[in-house]
């Protein structure tokens, strides 16, 4: 196989190196293209642009493959805990018993937040979205923990501090928004158990921890752990390329995740199903509107930017969803609507030809709803799950000797040079 490709322009031939990944992916190295030819490439949305080399996550959208550090997502969801997967993503290998014990101890040791941070919550407007609050609070962590060192042990503490405190911040924001007593983390509980207890325990009604609910939450977080160079991960790398602190980079990732086309999609699914449940439109009307290219309506939870077949995470989260609803004896009309929509989509020629298969957002919202997570917190849950992936990507970029400040180019389409016009001589152009 040739290790270069040729670009011919104006009777000149330029040879561009070919890079091949460990799974056979091929890329044309254009890093010297402008310097050698005067050209840049144009790729709106960066759908065909590789921004980095990474050893963290492998995806194959055509075959429906997702692996963390080489491990299939199916195996990790079945056999691992979220703590173990977080360690894998950040450190590159599954932990030994000694390593996971130390990691768990660090998570518990750093789970409390500075008491002064509680005052911040009271100063946000009552209707503030939890994602906006979380992004601000994570950024504020730098003020309370300003010392960021370079040794491996100190970086471990910074990383576990962030993973642990984000969970505490999320639960605390929920409690304060309800006017309820804040519940502090307990050292005897696991990561997911602690989060559920901080969310739902109260002095009046103690929360009973259900192993099946804990498992469902753990799988949800595992499935969201990392997903290659998506919008929020790219934001973390982009902002991090300026060598900002970890908290600022993660805050940027949270802000990027907020949108309905990315992390907010699971919330949008529930809202869409709710509209159908309230008879604002029928299932058939929703399907037909989704097919109409002139209608701005979108069938949320279907299709994916990368996957051109079934999202491998969907099968896993659907099984978790079915098992959880059966265990909790929940009859949810939204689930019935979701199942009907899925049956239509997987058999409809339009959806098949356009690769509009159900994705993870389609069922993850139902799982969170069954657990008792309010809809406004859905994207926050996504952020908690994605946090280890963001940290792994930030850490990898910081350690990359070839990494540079991200600075995309553009093609300018504005006016050419023109002379300044005094204000009294300016006219309005129609």
Structure characterization notes:
There is one protein chain. The chain has a domain at 4-60: Single Sheet (Rubrerythrin, domain 2), CATH 2.20.28. A three-stranded antiparallel sheet has the order 1-2-3. It has a three-stranded antiparallel sheet with strand order 4-5-6. It is globular, with a radius of gyration of 24 Å. It has helices spanning 33-37, 73-79, 82-91, 97-109, 118-121, 130-144, 152-178, 191-200, 211-223, 231-240, 246-257, 265-277, 283-291, 312-327, 333-347, 349-353, 360-371, 378-399, and strands at residues 4-9, 12-20, 26-28, 57-60, 65-68, 71-72. A hairpin with a 5-residue loop joins β2 (12-20) and β3. The protein has 430 residues and is mainly alpha-helical. InterPro entries: Citrate_synth-like_lrg_a-sub (IPR016142), Citrate_synth-like_sm_a-sub (IPR016143), Citrate_synthase (IPR002020), Citrate_synthase_AS (IPR019810), Citrate_synthase_bac-typ (IPR024176), Citrate_synthase_sf (IPR036969), Citrate_synthase_typ-I (IPR010953).
């Amino acid at each position: 196989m040739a290790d270069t490709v040729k670009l011919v322009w104006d009777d000149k031939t330029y040879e561009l190196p070919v890079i091949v990944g460990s799974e056979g992916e091929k890329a044309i190295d254009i890093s010297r293209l402008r310097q050698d030819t005067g050209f840049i490439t144009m790729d709106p949305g960066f759908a065909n642009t590789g921004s980095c080399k990474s050893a963290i996550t492998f995806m194959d959208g055509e075959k429906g493959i997702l692996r963390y550090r080489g491990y299939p997502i199916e195996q990790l969801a079945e056999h691992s805990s979220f703590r173990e997967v977080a360690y894998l993503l950040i450190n590159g290998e599954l932990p030994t018993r000694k390593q996971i014990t130390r990691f768990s101890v660090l998570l518990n040791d750093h789970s409390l937040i500075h008491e002064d941070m509680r005052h911040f919550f009271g100063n946000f407007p009552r209707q503030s979205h939890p994602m906006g609050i979380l992004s601000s609070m994570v950024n504020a962590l730098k003020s309370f923990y300003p010392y960021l060192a370079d040794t491996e042990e100190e970086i471990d503490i910074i990383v576990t501090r962030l993973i642990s405190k984000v969970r505490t911040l999320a639960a605390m924001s929920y409690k304060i928004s309800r006017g309820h007593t804040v519940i502090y983390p307990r050292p005897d509980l696991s990561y997911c158990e602690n989060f559920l207890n901080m969310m739902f325990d109260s002095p009046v009604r103690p929360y009973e921890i259900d192993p099946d609910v804990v498992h469902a939450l753990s799988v949800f977080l595992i499935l969201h752990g990392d997903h290659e160079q998506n919008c929020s991960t790219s934001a973390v790398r982009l902002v991090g390329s300026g060598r900002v602190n970890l908290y600022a980079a993660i805050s940027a990732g949270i802000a990027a995740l907020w949108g309905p086309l990315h992390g907010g999609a699971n919330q949008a699914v529930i809202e869409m199903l709710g509209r159908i449940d309230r008879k604002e439109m029928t299932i058939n009307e929703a399907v037909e509107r989704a097919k109409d290219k002139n209608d701005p309506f979108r069938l949320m939870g279907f299709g994916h930017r990368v996957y051109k077949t079934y999202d491998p995470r969907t099968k896993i989260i659907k099984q978790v969803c079915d098992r959880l609803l059966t265990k909790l004896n929940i009859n949810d009309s939204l689930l019935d609507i979701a199942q009907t929509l899925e049956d239509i989509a997987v058999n409809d020629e339009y959806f098949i030809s356009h690769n509009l298969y159900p994705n993870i957002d389609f069922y993850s919202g139902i799982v969170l709803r069954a657990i008792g997570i309010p809809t406004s917190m859905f994207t926050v849950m996504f952020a908690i799950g994605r946090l280890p992936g963001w940290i792994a990507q930030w850490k990898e970029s910081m350690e990359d000797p070839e990494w540079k400040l991200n600075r995309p180019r553009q093609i300018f389409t504005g006016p050419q040079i023109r002379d300044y016009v005094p204000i009294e001589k300016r006219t309005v152009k129609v």
